[in-house]
Amino acid sequence: MASTTTINTWMEELVLSFLPPSTPTDLRKLKDNFIRTVKHHNYGRTNQFAVAERLTGLEEKFQVYNLGDVAAELFSRRAELKRDHDDKKWLPDILDFLLHLSHDPVHFSRIENLEKLHPRTETPLPLKWEEVEGDDPIDRQDEIWRLPKYSDSSSEEDDAVPSSTSTSPATVKHDLEKEIDVERVFEAPAAQESTKLDAAQFWNRPGPFVTVTETQAVREVLFMLTGLPTSIFISTNDGIRPNARYCLGHLGSTTSRSLLEEVAQLGSDIDFVRQWLRTPQDSAVMQFIQSAISSILTSFESTISKEHTAILHQSSPTGVISLLQTLQRVDRASRPLKAVTIIASQFIQSDHIAALNTIYSHLDTAHSCSNSVEVETFLPIFLSSLALYSKPIDVWLLTGRIEPTEPFFVFENDRKTRVASTLWHDWFTLTPATDNTIPIFLKKFCERILTIGKTAAFLHHLGRATSNSCNHDLGLAAAAAETAHLIASSPLPFSATFEMVLDRHLTALLDISTSALRHVLETSCGLTRFLDALDYLYLAKDGVLLDGIESKMFDQIDRCVEMWNDRFLLSDLLSEAFQNTECVDVDAITVHAAYTSSRSMENRRRSVRILGAVSISYHLSWPIANIILPASIISYQRVALILNQIRRARALLESRAYFYVQHVPLPFDHPNDHRLARLIFWQLSHFANILYSHLTGCTVQAFTTTMRERLHSSSTRSVDDMIAIHTQYITGMEHACLSSKRIKPLRDALIAILDLCIRFTDLVTSPSTVPEVRPGSGDADGGDFEASSFISARSQRRHRRGGGGGGRGRQQQDDVYSSSEDDDEAGMGEGEGYSTFVLEEDASLTQEMIKVRDTFRRHVQFLVAGLRAVARSSRSNSPQGQGQGQGQELQVWEVGENFELLADSLEGVFPASRRVLT
């Protein structure tokens, strides 16, 4: 650190530098005041915030001038000063001092550049003609120094006749000075100059016909092409036409008129473009197209200005002024404008879709015809306008958002409530196909654009939006730019090249977004786990769990417990059964119980329809609900109901009827009748086992395996494909399990057969109680009044018809097994129902067995025939290519072969070669 004496000496020298040359008398006093002021300064005069702002502005200026390294160095130095010397009060003063010392730091950022700031002491002297002639003597007799002279009678097209008089550079300079002698012009008589001016104004000449020089015609043509009013040409609403009063003096009238009409046609085309540019446009795309066409017109007018300059300075490329040559040059420069005239004539005001379609069609035609001028004109306009139009589309493709200020052919559906579970189906929609809001080159891709955007919106609402870093080079604008690079070397038409590139971009975007969504659905939403839960709850994947649940439920039904379907008890039963099953969330299970029959429990238990009073629902999270539609749960419930009804019939046959048929002597009229009961038991049991094995093994398991494989296949490229696969799967499985409404007669026949299983079990297990169900005892014991009344009415009708046996008696016996029209079931699997079989008064156990066998045979035959008919119909009417989504063919769930296989299996219940005992 410098000593105090040294600092005082420096300050004295500093104060002396401030004082005037004349030394004041109180010099000592001034020195003391100055030193005292400096030493006691409070460092508050420099605005430290202004210094910081100047330094920040300097950093930004470095970045603007692409000097990022200098800006980074300045930033690091400031950070170091702030960290190590922030407590120094003099730091802002020093920085301000350095800023004042700096000189243009953007251009002079290096130390060595400071040398360039020093002024040069030596300046070169101006070069003189004597020095030039000393190095390279000029031959003044050379032809280059001779100026050509033209005859006054010759036209501009005549060859120039050089003068034989030699002129020197001094002479040339003297002539030029004489030509621009302004003083002489103003000193000339006013009448003489007025006469010359009147002669130049050819439009004021009298007479029906006026001849003009070629220079005058060229000037008029150039003025007309720039949109200025002229005398030779007349501008009307129909275009521009030549004025018949004027013709070129050195040409014939026909030639002159033909040449001027050709020029007028060119001017009409250019004037049409100029008039179109004055039309106001509301659309941003149309405004951009106007700007691009205006640039082409400006370039053309620049060419016209050069022609004007050549005439004024007499520097024509050919040395003479020729209307024909000028017209050729102007026509060559106007070719882009002529191309613009073709498309502008088809534009509709503020209709950018029609404009894009027009440009696209003409660009494709021009490229196919190798019209380079039109291609070079249309291609930049189309690419730039498409890039502007595609901005909201690319935002939709990448983020799933629709900008309200920039609408296109995808819009948000405001007619339906925005519920997250219907995001994929109801939130977004396309404009109607009849609406002209979709460009022709995007019509075949609009469905895929909608799908990609919905996938991005799905991911956005899941909080897992894909990063734009991997998609920045994909989209509509990127496809157009890539097409522009390929068009020069592509042998395909422009439209084919553009569609190929756009298809690749959209496919890549769809694959990326769908893969991300499938990963989220699998990992975070548990799609596979949910499907496994449906298999356990509805499709009987674990028979042990179902046995534990259904054994208690069936036991309560057989004991005629009215509360057998209490939803609270069943919920506890299901929760206890599935609590150790990992894929099943017991809290998501909901049991629904319905009481739709007024009949007694004794009647309702005799039919498997009673099981329709219980249904199980499983909660769907909103992401899963977009893939697995809530309506599919109803189909699952119908399939689960038919499987449950079959298990109900099998359980009664195996747990009760088997023991009585095999080990208990039944009260038959003849010993051989016991063999008949065993045969009927075998047939019923065989039917139930075959049916259940077919539905679980050949239908449910096969369909589910195929669905899982296709759902996780790489060929499934969109959410629409996933939805279609599952929808077709559950629809086909419902149809194959005889649960759909289209084959209700077959289901009714199946239910009747299952009810026969219950009827047979009741006959063999409680033969001693058969008389108790007859009218007399039934009323006394408080039985079902409606059922007993129905039995009494049928018995009375039989007695009135004469009772008896034979064929008439057998017909009456068959009638009592017909289905009742009073069935409470309104739909498939809805309602509890009741038994449709009634016991006659005087019927024995053997007769009832025969009735069961005959009715069973009749229903099986009808079921087999119906299955074969449905199988043929399914094969012949199955739509080829059904379930196509985004160009990908999905599997058609063919059930015809399933029905044929089931029919062949059920025919074995009554083999043709087997003799049936009676």
From TrEMBL:
| A Pfam family of this chain | GCP_N_terminal
Pinpoint the Gamma tubulin complex component protein N-terminal domain residues: 218-473
What range(s) does the Gamma-Tubulin ring complex non-core subunit mod21 N-terminal domain occupy? 68-156
Q: Which residues form the Gamma tubulin complex component C-terminal domain?
A: 531-874
Q: Name one GO molecular function term.
A: microtubule minus-end binding
Sorted alphabetically, which CDD domains does this protein's record hold?
GCP5_NTD
Principal location listed in the UniProt entry: cytoplasm
Keyword field contains Cytoplasm? yes
> Where is it localised?
Cytoplasm, Cytoskeleton, Microtubule organizing center
- Residues of the region (Disordered) are 149-174, 767-831
- Where is there biased composition of kind Low complexity? 161-171
Which residues lie in coiled coils?
Answer: none
Q: Which InterPro entries does the entry link to?
A: GCP, GCP5_N_ext, GCP_C, GCP_C_sf, GCP_N, Mod21_N
Name a single GO biological process. Answer: spindle assembly
One cellular component term from this protein's GO annotations in UniProt = spindle pole
| Superkingdom of source | Eukaryota
Alphabetized UniProt keyword annotations: Cytoplasm, Cytoskeleton, Microtubule
Family recorded in the similarity comment: Belongs to the TUBGCP family.
Query: Matching PANTHER family, A to Z?
Result: GAMMA TUBULIN COMPLEX PROTEIN, GAMMA-TUBULIN COMPLEX COMPONENT 5
Q: What is this protein called?
A: Spindle pole body component
From which organism does this entry originate?
A: Cladophialophora psammophila CBS 110553
